[in-house]
Write a structure and sequence with these properties.
This protein is α/β, with parallel strands linked by helices. It is built from 6 helices and 9 strands, in the order βαβαββαβαββαβαβ. It is globular.
Length: 192
């Protein structure tokens, strides 16, 4: 995501489905005039350090049309029941020329049988539900929302993704070369 980060200095920005607010913090650190963190989960919003936190459904944002210069969203679109409606809602709150930068669990990783999981503070493993959207789904949804895709980046295991973590040797051997994360940057109102 950071490799494709748009210019945010002085911008009004939204961290959509912010989780712990990592991107809201990054927006503020990089000079956004106003960074709003939005999530449906009160527990996640409590963990976000942004002074501007809003509890809302990412499919029905409580903001006027065209109020943000930048919308970022990390690994959330797969939780949306309809990618076209999600994309239209993200585009709706963008100004003309505004940028949507988001990531998703790659559809090839889903097809290979990978799941999105996390371990909580009690060491219990949880598997997250995820709607698989293929690359044409992302592109068609962007076009339907009036967004022009500028960047489509596929991060592959053992190539772009190389960070060590417990069990990473086995993980990298098993899944080497598999696209695991999709990053898309699109601009509102641009012609493709």
């Amino acid at each position: 995501m950071l490799r494709h980060w748009p210019k945010v200095a002085g911008a009004h920005a939204l961290d959509l489905a912010c989780g712990t607010g990592r991107y809201a913090s990054a927006l503020a650190e990089r000079g956004a005039a106003h960074a709003v963190a939005v999530d449906f989960s009160p527990a996640m919003l409590r963990r976000a350090s942004s002074p501007h936190r809003v509890r809302a459904d990412m499919m029905a944002l409580p903001f006027a049309n065209g109020v943000f210069d930048v919308v970022v969203s990390g690994l959330a679109v797969g939780h949306a029941p309809d990618i076209t409606l999600w994309m239209r809602e993200a585009a709706r709150v963008l100004v003309s020329g505004g940028v949507l930068l988001y990531s998703d669990f790659h559809p090839h990783a889903c097809a290979a049988g990978m799941t999105r999981t996390f371990t909580d503070e009690r060491h219990q493993k949880h598997t997250l539900s995820h709607n698989r959207y293929d690359l044409p789904d992302h592109q068609q949804a962007a076009a339907a929302a009036g967004l022009c895709v500028e960047v489509l980046d596929e991060l592959r295991v053992g190539t772009e993704l190389q960070e060590p973590f417990p069990g990473s040797d086995l993980f990298y051997r098993r899944w080497h070369g598999l696209p695991i994360v999709l990053v898309i940057r699109a601009r509102k109102g641009s012609t493709c």
